[in-house]
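About this split. The held-out portion is used to measure sequence recovery: a designer receives only the structure tokens and must propose an amino acid at every position. Recovery is the fraction of positions where the proposal matches the reference. Here is one held-out target exactly as it appears in the evaluation file.
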């Protein structure tokens, strides 16, 4: 089980590193490299919209990889998605800037960002299922949360590499070539991830379905016919995790540097400290969900995000560097409680025949609703109102929507994830709160 967990964590770390190194670059340099002819706020918004494009692709990737993951297997899709992500990220590091090839530069960037999105749309769900379907019933929450650790580790690595490059180059060198280094070195991480994932086995839960010939012909259609309610509610229930995390690692960095005058290095250190906290707390909250249930822990996390939405900005707006660390640390605790158990919770909502599709589509729907819009919306709100309270209201609204959706879903901790129980218990379970 430890081997499987480590393989999943390393693979998802690579995927999230590749995804979030783009987010960091969007916040710090892409507006100057690919949109230099535009006003600062407009250029930043367009850079963030390019960042958001991956979330549309993630939904397509969730359906595509979910189809083959439910029919062919989890392991093979994990390898394909990891190679796709690695190739796209490496290629981004080679894209010429606007001054070299003009408008073709942002279009190339957009195309590669879409490939990144397609890959992540299929990778995350497979990694979660490799751990959850292998895990003992009484520890599914903990082992599912280990996959979630890939997010703070990947973000930590992305920001650490950018911080290192920024410290070794001046501003002109960073814009000229330094920004490419974090993208190019991802090839090393991808190679490690592929090697490790080649040595894990397919889950017995899926093998039982395949051997029985019970695979769904078109998993997405079967999913929406039987589990459409869980898909929609699961996506909205998970919305606040994406909004909150994207606020911290992308929008918050941009706000701290552009609006508050903090240095890029300081904001990167703040994000890295938060990721270290999340690394420790996410498995803890996953473990707590095995003891007290998924919904109570997730509910507490979302509620804390809502409560902290205004204090987060009050602390940042003081302009104090120590209070910026405090603001991020508090919000990270809330995020970790929300994010730790959510992967297992979503996986347990669906039967084995369509679990890859259901888990992936619900989670990527949450990203489309929350993470994709957050960077561009926050910049737009700040340019429109000039007040951080407008962004706080946005985060509060996302948390409110997630709380309502979570309330309408059933607790999943006590159910089995075998095909027989999941397939037959779901309609009955929908009525329970």
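Reference sequence for scoring:
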């Amino acid at each position: 089980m430890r081997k499987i967990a480590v393989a999943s964590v390393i693979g998802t770390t690579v995927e999230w590193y590749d995804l979030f190194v783009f987010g960091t670059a969007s916040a710090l340099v892409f507006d100057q490299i690919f949109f230099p002819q535009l006003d600062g706020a407009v250029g930043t918004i367009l850079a963030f919209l390019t960042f958001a494009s991956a979330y549309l692709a993630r939904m397509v990737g969730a359906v595509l990889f979910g189809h083959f993951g439910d029919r062919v297997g989890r392991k093979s899709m994990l390898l394909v998605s990891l190679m796709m992500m690695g190739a796209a990220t490496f290629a981004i590091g080679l894209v010429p800037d606007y001054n070299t090839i003009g408008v073709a530069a942002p279009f190339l960037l957009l195309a590669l960002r879409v490939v990144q999105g397609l890959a992540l749309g299929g990778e995350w769900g497979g990694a979660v299922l490799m751990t959850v379907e292998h895990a003992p019933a009484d520890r599914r929450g903990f082992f599912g949360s280990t996959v979630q650790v890939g997010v703070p580790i990947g973000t930590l690595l992305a920001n650490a590499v950018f911080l290192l490059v920024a410290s070794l180059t001046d501003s002109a060198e960073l814009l000229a070539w330094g920004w490419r280094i974090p993208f190019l070195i991802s090839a090393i991480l991808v190679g490690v991830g592929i090697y490790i994932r080649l040595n894990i086995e397919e889950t017995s839960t899926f093998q039982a379905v395949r051997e029985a010939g019970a695979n769904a012909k078109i998993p997405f259609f079967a999913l929406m016919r039987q589990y459409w309610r869980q898909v929609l509610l699961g996506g909205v229930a998970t919305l606040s995790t994406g909004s909150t995390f994207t606020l911290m690692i992308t929008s918050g960095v941009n706000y701290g540097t552009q609006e508050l005058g903090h240095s890029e290095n300081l904001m990167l250190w703040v994000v890295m400290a938060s990721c270290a906290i999340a690394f420790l707390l996410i498995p803890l909250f996953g473990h707590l969900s095995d003891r007290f249930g998924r919904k109570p822990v997730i509910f507490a996390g979302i509620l804390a995000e809502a409560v902290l939405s205004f204090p987060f900005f009050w602390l940042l707006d003081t302009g104090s560097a120590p209070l910026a660390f405090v603001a991020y640390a508090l919000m990270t605790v809330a995020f970790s409680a929300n994010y730790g158990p959510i992967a297992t919770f979503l996986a347990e909502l669906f039967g084995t025949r369509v679990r890859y599709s259901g888990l992936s589509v619900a989670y990527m729907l949450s990203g489309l609703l929350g993470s994709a819009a957050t960077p561009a919306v926050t910049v737009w709100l700040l340019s429109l109102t000039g007040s951080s309270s407008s962004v706080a209201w946005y985060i509060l609204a996302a948390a409110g929507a997630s709380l309502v959706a979570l309330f309408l879903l059933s607790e999943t901790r006590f159910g089995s994830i075998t095909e027989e129980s999941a397939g037959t218990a779901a309609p009955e379970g929908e009525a329970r709160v």
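Annotator remark: Confidence is low (pLDDT under 50) at residues 420-433.
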